[in-house]
Amino acid sequence: MPDHAAVRLVADTRLRGAAGPLPVRTYWPAATPAAPMLVFLPADGIEGADALCRAACSGAGVVVLSVSYRKPRRQDGRCDAILATEWAADHARELGADPDRLLLAGEGAGAELAAAVASHARERGWPPLAHLTIGELLDRPRRLSGFPRPE
Fewer C-beta neighbours within 10 Å, C or N terminus of the chain? Predict the structure, then answer.
């Protein structure tokens, strides 16, 4: 069981979305300088994903940006997920995360959105980002120690 005390700080904020404010919640691990940044797209909103995000943050030592998005099966949800991922990439350093180690995961409908964002990123030539399932992150958190750093 993850040590929830290993989550140093949790903060709610809002990003400027195309249709208004986009709620996000950020989790910082206790003692991991320049940790990877995980953009997480939860199935049931940021409130319902709190325990899962805390587990990912403390267990894998990642900064987690949990994103509330609009209906995932519509273009709106995809736009929200892309906006949040771009924002995370642009602001990772300010959040104490390593901008060269961006992770993307989702749960339920959020997993479909994460796959769509990963595809969008490849098509547009974004810097590499690791797309994984939240289960992979929680089952093998130490695999992040070998997360590739661009040269």
Answer: C
For residue 73, what pLDDT is reported? 60
45-59 b/e (C-beta count within 10 Å ≥ 16 → b): ebeebeebbbbbbbb
Continuous segment of H or E residues that includes residue 85: helix 75-91
| Averaged pLDDT, groups of 10, the chain, 151 residues long | 71 90 94 86 91 90 93 78 93 92 90 90 83 69 47 37
The sign of the CA dihedral 35, 91, 112, 47 is: positive
SS (H, E, C) 11-60: EEEEEEECCEEEEEEEEEECCCCCEEEEEEECCCHHHHCHHHHHHHHHHH
Domain ranges for the chain:
4-144
Residue 3 confidence (pLDDT): 55
C-alpha count within 13 angstroms, C-beta hemisphere, residue 94: 7
Query: Which of 122, 71, 81 shows the shortest CA–CA distance to 104?
Result: 81
